[in-house]
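To the wet lab folks,

You asked to see what we're planning to order before we commit. Fair enough. Below is the target structure as C-alpha cells, and below that is the sequence we designed to fit it. If anything looks off to you, flag it before the synthesis order goes out.
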C-alpha cells in the first residue's frame, strides 16, 4: 500500500507594507436614538405638534432631511474606505453601566458581539504573528510584539524610528485579554471560544484539526474521527483491526513500506512505517490526529529472528497524515539480524496513558 508523503498546504505571510485597516465604534444615546427615529418619520415628539406639522411644510422638511442624510452618508463613505467594521453600542456601555441594567445591551455576562472582517488586525505588523502580551508601543503609537522588540536594531520603531520597547500598550493588552474568538476549526465541529492570546495553543491540540488521508492518490481531509470513517468506507481492506493492550503479530515484507492499523473500540488510526535504511529497517509508529492534551499512546515493539529479540518501548508519534516527520523514536533492525529472510517478524502492543502519568 502506498502512503502519501506530500506536505500540507502552507499559509503565506502577509506583506509588511499592507495598509492596516481601522475599526470605528459609533454610539448614540437613547434620547438621540428616539429623536432620530421620530425625525426620520417626519414628525415631532408631541402628538399635537405632529398634527400642526401636516401639509407642505412637513413635506419640505422631509426632503431636506433625506438630502442631508444622503450627503452625510456619501461623505462618510468617501472618508472611511478602510473601515472594516462599524459597531453600534449603547452609551451606557461606554460609561461603564452593566449591560443588564439597560435595554439593548450585551449578553447576560455583559459581553457584546463584535465582528472583525480582517482577523490580521490583531497580528504584529512586523512578524505577522498573533499579538501576545506584553505589547509595546513607541511614542507615536506604533505597536509591536515583545519578540520583535528584542530583535529590532537599536530598539527603534520599524515605522518612525522612535524608541520602542519600554512603553506598554495597555489598551491593546486589555483587548487581547477580553476578546474571545471561535476556533479556526469551527467549521469542522469545534465550538470552543478561546481568548486571542490562547488561540494558537488551543488550535495546536484541537481534536477537530483536519487530517489528510495518507493513501496515495486520495485527497480527503477531515478531523481524525471522520477520517477513520472515510478509511473504513473508501479504503476497506487496506488496514488491520486490533485492540488496545493486546499483542498483534505482523510480518513486514522487504518492499512493504507501511501497515495501517485501526483500533476496534474507538477507531483510532495507527501506521507502522517501515523505512529501508543503509543499516537495515527503521520501524516507526504514528497515530493519525493532533496530539491530545489529556491522553496519549505508548507502544511496545518487538522484532524476533533466529532466537534473538529487539525491543522498543516508547510513546507514539503524532502526525496529521500529510507528512511523517523524522524522529529518533524507531526500532532499527539490522540487515544481519533478519538473516537470509527478507522479511521482518514483529510484535506490537499499543496502550493508553495519561499526561499525569507520562514520564520519559
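Sequence we intend to order:
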Amino acid at each position: 500500500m502506498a502512503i502519501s508523503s506530500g506536505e500540507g498546504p502552507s499559509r503565506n505571510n502577509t506583506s509588511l507594507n499592507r495598509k492596516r485597516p481601522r475599526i470605528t465604534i459609533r454610539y448614540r444615546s437613547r434620547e438621540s436614538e428616539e429623536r432620530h427615529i421620530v425625525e426620520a418619520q417626519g414628525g415631532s415628539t408631541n402628538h399635537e405638534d405632529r398634527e400642526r406639522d401636516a401639509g407642505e411644510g412637513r413635506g419640505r422638511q422631509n426632503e431636506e432631511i433625506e438630502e442631508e442624510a444622503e450627503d452625510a452618508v456619501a461623505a462618510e463613505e468617501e472618508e472611511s474606505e478602510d473601515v472594516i467594521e462599524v459597531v453600534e453600542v449603547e452609551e451606557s456601555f461606554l460609561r461603564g453601566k452593566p449591560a443588564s441594567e439597560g435595554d439593548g445591551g450585551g449578553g447576560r455576562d455583559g459581553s457584546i458581539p463584535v465582528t472583525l472582517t480582517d482577523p490580521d488586525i490583531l497580528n504584529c505588523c512586523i512578524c505577522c504573528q498573533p499579538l501576545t502580551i506584553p505589547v509595546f508601543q513607541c511614542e507615536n503609537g506604533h505597536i509591536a510584539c515583545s519578540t520583535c522588540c528584542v530583535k529590532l536594531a537599536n530598539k527603534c520603531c520599524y515605522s518612525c524610528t522612535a524608541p520602542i520597547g519600554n512603553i506598554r500598550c495597555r489598551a491593546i493588552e486589555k483587548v487581547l485579554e477580553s476578546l474571545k474568538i471561535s476556533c479556526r476549526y469551527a467549521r469542522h465541529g469545534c465550538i470552543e471560544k478561546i481568548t486571542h492570546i490562547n488561540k494558537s495553543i488551543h488550535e495546536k491540540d484541537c481534536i477537530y484539526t483536519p487530517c489528510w488521508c495518507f493513501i496515495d492518490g486520495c485527497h480527503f481531509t477531515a478531523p481524525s474521527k471522520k477520517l477513520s470513517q472515510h478509511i473504513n468506507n473508501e479504503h476497506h481492506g487496506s488496514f488491520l483491526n486490533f485492540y488496545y493492550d493486546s499483542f498483534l503479530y505482523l510480518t513486514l515484507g522487504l518492499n512493504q513500506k507501511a501497515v495501517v492499523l485501526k483500533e476496534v473500540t474507538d477507531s483510532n488510526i495507527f501506521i507502522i512505517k517501515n523505512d529501508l535504511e543503509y543499516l537495515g529497517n527503521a520501524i516507526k509508529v504514528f497515530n493519525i490526529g493532533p496530539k491530545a492534551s489529556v491522553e496519549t499512546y505508548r507502544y511496545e515493539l518487538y522484532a524476533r529472528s533466529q532466537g534473538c529479540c529487539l525491543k522498543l518501548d516508547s510513546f507514539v508519534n503524532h502526525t496529521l497524515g500529510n507528512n511523517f516527520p523524522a524522529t529518533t523514536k524507531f526500532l532499527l533492525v539490522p540487515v544481519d539480524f533478519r538473516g537470509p529472510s527478507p522479511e521482518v517478524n514483529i510484535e506490537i502492543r499499543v496502550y493508553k496513558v495519561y499526561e499525569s502519568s507520562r514520564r520519559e
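Structural context that might help your review: Residues 6-45, 73-105 have pLDDT under 50 and may be disordered. The chain has eight helices and 19 strands.

Thanks,
Computational group
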